[in-house]
Write a structure and sequence with these properties.
globular; 15 helices; 377 residues; mainly alpha; three-stranded antiparallel sheet
Length: 377
């Protein structure tokens, strides 16, 4: 979200003791004293009018009465504010998924009363999305996030709990129902599709692809890798990367075998402990590039390389290679390990164990992951 698109903060005018915002080079004052229910209601109305899909940067803590939500947009705006503080900063897929769901909710039911927002209205959103050509997986995910918003609002005593209980009776759309479009399933990525692209990429991106192909780590974890995350006193090495669930206290260990050790050794030795391993400035000394890749810039670099490869193949009369994303590298690793070592080994190498798994089961998976790393990584 650019600074220009962020909603202005709710502020206090000290001499007037009124709430205000600075918007379009003007000051807008709200009725009542600063932080009073009337003033906050005015600020929320301002946000609904000018920033219906955006986040309240500085949420205001009010008493129970002033927290009450009367219309659907009150729930959506407040839930977005909570989501921004709950999910890790940056490009969080959790927050982006919620923001997308709230956009659909506001588009269809923005001004409706919370008390009359019933299961049939949720089913209406399903039908609108299906008619718009959205895939079944995306529709079900969106409906789940809307339910989550109302569950959160009920827990905050913003809405009656029975509203959420009613919405919870709505099931996801089953395959083949309502004429909804099924999501397109991508074919398993093979090395024959990956290898031609490497010649069009920088050495840094090439090394990232090889590491992801071999370990199956997520793109975000790969882009945020630093030397201090690696324990090289063991064999195989242990890598404790940052990951999307680390705010829950879950620790992930990725064993690093001899192939990846060779890829990473000189990088780790040449970087400070907290310095990103994969830096765009290694190839181009241009300060407009960031100090590290992120999942978006990493994916874009691969997409552009595929386009260059296909342009050359077109000139030679060869068929194009299919487009692929970094996440497919992870899926390809899962399929390879599952075919060779079984499904439990695939869960181990990709760290797909739940927080409730027993310690013995987790240790068993780590042993399997180490075995795979020694033999393939």
């Amino acid at each position: 979200m650019s600074l220009a698109n962020r909603p202005p903060a709710y502020r206090k005018h000290s001499t007037r003791n009124k709430g205000m915002v600075a918007f379009q080079k003007k000051r807008i004052y709200f009725e009542g004293e600063y932080n009073s229910p009337e003033s906050v209601a005015g600020y929320q109305a301002f946000l609904r009018q000018h920033f219906p899909f955006h986040v309240i940067k500085n949420p205001i803590v009010l008493d129970r009465k002033s927290r009450a939500a009367s219309i659907v947009s009150d729930v959506a705006t407040s839930f977005l504010s909570w989501a921004q503080s709950y999910y890790p900063p940056g490009r969080s897929s959790g927050y982006q998924n919620i923001r997308s769901a709230m956009k659909w909710l506001l588009q269809v039911c923005e001004g409706e009363s919370v008390k009359t927002f019933c299961p049939l209205r949720l089913k209406h959103i399903q039908k609108v999305m299906a008619a718009d050509g959205q895939s079944r997986d995306y529709v079900n995910q969106t409906i789940g996030k809307i339910k989550q918003a109302f569950k959160w609002a009920a827990s905050e005593e913003m809405i009656p709990a029975e509203v959420w209980h009613g919405l919870n009776t709505v099931s996801g759309i089953k395959k083949g129902r309502m004429g909804i479009r099924e999501p397109k399933r991508r074919a398993t990525l093979t090395w024959d599709t990956v290898a031609p692209v490497l010649a069009e990429l920088s050495p840094t991106i090439t090394r990232m692809i090889l590491l992801q192909w071999t370990t199956g780590v997520r793109s975000d974890s790969l882009c945020s890798a630093t030397p201090e995350q690696f324990d090289r006193s063991r064999d195989p090495w242990h890598w404790r990367p940052k990951h999307k669930m680390q705010f829950t206290g879950k620790e992930i260990i990725v064993p690093i075998g001899p192939k990846c050790q060779e890829l990473l050794g000189d990088l780790i030795d040449s970087r400070a402990p907290d310095e990103p391993l994969f830096c765009p400035r290694d190839q181009r000394k241009n300060l407009r590039y960031g100090k590290k890749y992120n999942s978006v810039s990493y994916r874009q670099a691969i997409e552009r390389a595929i386009e260059r490869v296909n342009a050359k193949r077109s000139e030679n009369g060869d068929p194009p290679i299919p487009h692929w994303s970094p996440h497919q590298l992870r899926h390809a690793k899962a399929q390879e390990v599952r075919d060779t070592y079984g499904i439990e080994a695939a869960q181990a190498i990709l760290t797909h164990d739940s927080l409730e798994a027993t310690q013995i089961y987790s240790e068993r998976r780590l042993e399997l992951a180490e075995k795979v790393a020694r033999e393939t990584g």
